[in-house]
Design brief:
Largest sheet: 3 strands, antiparallel
Number of domains: 4
Distance between the termini: 122 Å
Shape: elongated
Structural class: mainly alpha
Number of helices: 19
Length: about 500
């Protein structure tokens, strides 16, 4: 209700009510003009300027102020509190899976024993209620997720964890609202040093039983997955190999990756869970890859032996002997390891050792070259052998055939020799050549030939084929042309070889 109407309803004149509104006052502002009723008289001069109020008018104004205060208090007290609603689909409110009833669990047990009569289901092998609730919730909504290892426990193990918790009264001032409303579910502690293969096998077996009870997959497929997983996890390696099996946390991560892949096939590709389990167990190689052997870290170095303040020769840091598999020069000075400067041997003991190669910075006065270790030489030799025996890069495209016919030959007798030949093309026409040489012409050019020029007939045949190449080059559009020189050397034409002739100077 407006301020003017409230004042008029209490009996205040219209002139004063309109004056208060004209001064800019409203019900909301008038309500908060003062915090106490005793202070109201001090602000009446601002609300009703240039007006002298009577005692009755002041009492009416106090009554309106009190009415506004009471209406605000009653409105806030009577406002209904929002009721707790169930989280709607599409909201970000997440909570634990709803607890299934005892009758539902009994029905699941009955169907499980009917489907798998050889299985034993008792208090020590039955999945916990929370695990069954989570598996059943995912199966009903068709929204599968990987169930963490810490929630995979039997009913007996869940009861032991609940009984081992301290029964203390919580301090309400130190706990949040969510901590008072939501309880913390019992969970296993998954650590590398607190679990063994037997514990991993138990939690995977109870997980298989829970999924089989709610009908997610057949128990045989689930056990096949678990059997192969455990067999890869428990591989034995010789100490000299430097390998180790995956740790507990690495195995948990591998199981998570595998189930994420199977769930992707089911939700995105429309596979059944049985087919997805068989795919990742028998067909694909993700499981052996994720559970492959790891490099064993080197042992932590023990304390240093020696005498002196800390050790003998701490300020020198000299290499006195070779270490197997290293390339450190003898009598060199060790400066840093893994980018950490060293002053004493105690600093060297603080360097963190990992599975990777360790790089050391040394200073050697005896040599300016880095000596390669035996392993480095072996690796370089391996690469050299590999590069030498690489397959040559040869084009498989066939060479184009040029429709040309060419012939060249030579003859010699006494101190005279003659060469000749022709080049013929269907569209470019024909060219031919013929030339005669004497022994004296070769002598003037300082070309050593024999007087009986028949003995050097191979050289003249090579010369004829060279002229043939020149004729071919001028007879076609593209100058690129190759030919293999094959002189017709008879038994009686024993002269110098083609290579010797090509090394000699032949006139243009």
């Amino acid at each position: 209700m407006e301020l003017a109407e409230l004042l008029k309803s209490e009996g205040l004149s219209s002139e004063l009510a309109d004056l208060a509104v004209a001064s800019g006052w409203k019900s909301s502002t008038f309500k908060h003009a003062v915090s106490k009723l005793e202070e109201l008289d001090s602000v009446l001069g601002e609300i009703f300027p240039e007006k002298v109020l009577t005692a009755l008018q002041k009492a009416t104004i106090r009554s309106v102020w009190s009415t506004l205060q009471e209406s605000g208090a009653s409105g806030s007290a009577e406002s209904p509190t929002p009721a707790a609603t169930e989280p709607r689909e599409g909201s970000w409110v997440e909570s634990f899976a709803p607890k299934i009833s005892s009758s539902s669990i009994s029905e699941m047990k009955r169907k499980y024993l009917v489907n798998y009569p050889s299985e034993i289901l008792n208090y020590s092998t039955q999945p916990s209620t929370r695990l069954l609730s989570l598996a059943s919730h995912q199966q009903n909504k068709k929204d599968w997720r990987w169930i963490p290892w810490k929630f995979r426990m039997t009913e007996e193990r869940a009861s032991e964890i609940l009984m081992s918790r301290p029964n203390k009264q919580p301090r309400l001032e130190a706990i949040g609202l969510s901590g008072m409303l939501l309880d913390e579910p019992p969970a296993l502690e998954i650590q590398d040093h607190s679990m063994g293969v037997n514990a991993i096998q138990k939690l995977m077996n109870v997980h298989d039983v829970s999924l089989a009870m709610v009908g997610t997959a057949h128990l045989a497929r689930l056990k096949g997955y678990t059997t192969k997983f455990i067999s890869l996890l428990t591989q034995k390696f010789d100490a000299s190999s430097g390998l180790r099996p995956p740790s507990v946390l690495e195995a948990q991560q591998a199981d998570c990756r595998l189930w994420q892949g199977m769930i992707t096939l089911v939700t995105d590709k429309g596979w059944t869970m049985d087919d997805a389990l068989y795919e990742f167990t028998e067909v694909r190689g993700e499981m052996p890859s994720l559970l492959q052997a790891r490099a064993r870290p080197p042992p932590i170095p023990k304390g240093w032996d020696g005498k002196g303040k800390t050790n003998k020769g701490l300020g020198k840091m000299l290499v006195e002997s070779y270490a197997k598999g290293t390339a450190i020069p003898l009598h060199s000075t060790l400066l840093s390891v893994r980018h950490q400067k060293l002053q004493t041997l105690s600093d060297l003991a603080k360097v963190r050792i990992t599975e990777r190669r360790i790089w050391m910075r040394v200073s050697s006065q005896s040599s300016n070259k880095r000596r390669l270790s035996t392993e480095s030489v072996r690796i370089l030799g391996l690469y050299e052998s590999w590069l030498l025996h690489m397959s040559p890069m040869i084009s498989m495209r066939p060479a184009s055939v040029f429709p040309m016919e060419a012939q060249a030959d030579a003859s010699a007798q006494g101190q005279r020799a003659c060469i000749g030949g022709f080049v013929s093309h269907p569209s470019l026409g024909q060219r031919w050549f013929r030339e005669e040489f004497t022994y004296e012409e070769f002598r003037e050019l300082q070309i050593p030939v024999q007087q009986d020029m028949q003995l050097d007939i191979a050289c003249y045949e090579a010369l004829a084929q060279g002229v043939e190449l020149v004729a071919k080059k001028g007879h076609r559009a593209k100058p690129s042309l190759s030919r293999q020189l094959r002189p017709n050397v008879k038994g009686q034409a024993a002269g110098m070889s083609d290579q010797a002739y090509r090394d000699a100077h032949v006139p243009g």
